[in-house]
Each structure stands twice: as structure tokens, then as C-alpha cells.
Design brief:
This protein has strands at 4-7, 10-13, 18-24, 32-37, 44-49, 55-57, 65-70, 75-80, 89-95, 105-106, 110-115. The protein is mostly beta strands and 116 residues long. The strands form two sheets. Strands 2, 4, 5, 6, 9, 10 and 11 form a seven-stranded mixed sheet that branches. The protein has a four-stranded antiparallel sheet with strand order 1-3-8-7, with no helix packed on it. The radius of gyration is 13 Å and the shape is globular.
């Protein structure tokens, strides 16, 4: 397990942009991902990326959100453009440290609020 620390959340107007960062305390061999949870809703996978930069993007954010990864810095980024009120939630970073196919590390999350 590694420690993950997210940053970059905040309050933004509809149509605005934010860039989230997640720094791991050690190297990550497997997938890194961003999940989000809106009030009263289940947590959902937003984006994920392998160590080889193969990315998955949920349909709800496709064309607006982009995940990237810097393995040298043990960091994953989430660029969010054209934000909508329904993107509001707590965004958490998860990681599969050893590449075993399951997330074993997760951060405390960062709040993203999109005002209408």
C-alpha cells in the first residue's frame, strides 16, 4: 500500500476547468484511477490508466476529461474541461500498487463543486 494525496479540487462555474493531481508515496505498477461520489449517489469510476498509458474514460465524461500519468513522478492527473453541475462530487484517486488487478491504495479525496 502507498499513500495517495489528491489536490486541485475547488469551486468552478459551469463550463470551467480544473486539473486534479494525485501523488503517490511510491511507485505504482498497475492501474491508477479516479473515482467520484456525488451526494446521495454511489461511487463511480470516471477514468483509469495503466502503466502503459492505456486509458479508460466513462461515457459521461468522454470528450471532456483526460487522464494522464507521469510514472517518474508517481503522479496521475485528471484534466477536467467543460464542467457541468453533475460533475460535482468528491474525487478520489485509487491505485493498484503491485499490478495484481485490485486497488490497494486510495486517497482521502478532493471536493469538486460546479455551480450552475
Amino acid at each position: 500500500q502507498v499513500q495517495l494525496v489528491e489536490s486541485g479540487g475547488g469551486l468552478v462555474q459551469t463550463g470551467g476547468s480544473l486539473r486534479l493531481s494525485c501523488v503517490a508515496s511510491g511507485s505504482i505498477a498497475g492501474i491508477m484511477a479516479w473515482y467520484r461520489q456525488a451526494p446521495g449517489k454511489q461511487r463511480e469510476l470516471v477514468v483509469s490508466i495503466t502503466s502503459a498509458d492505456d486509458a479508460y474514460t466513462a461515457d459521461s465524461v468522454k470528450g471532456r476529461f483526460t487522464i494522464s500519468r507521469d510514472n517518474a513522478k508517481n503522479t496521475v492527473y485528471l484534466q477536467m474541461n467543460s464542467l457541468k453541475p453533475e460533475d460535482t462530487g468528491v474525487y478520489s484517486c485509487l491505485a493498484d500498487r503491485w499490478g495484481l488487478g485490485n486497488y490497494d491504495s486510495w486517497g482521502p479525496g478532493t471536493q469538486v463543486t460546479v455551480s450552475s
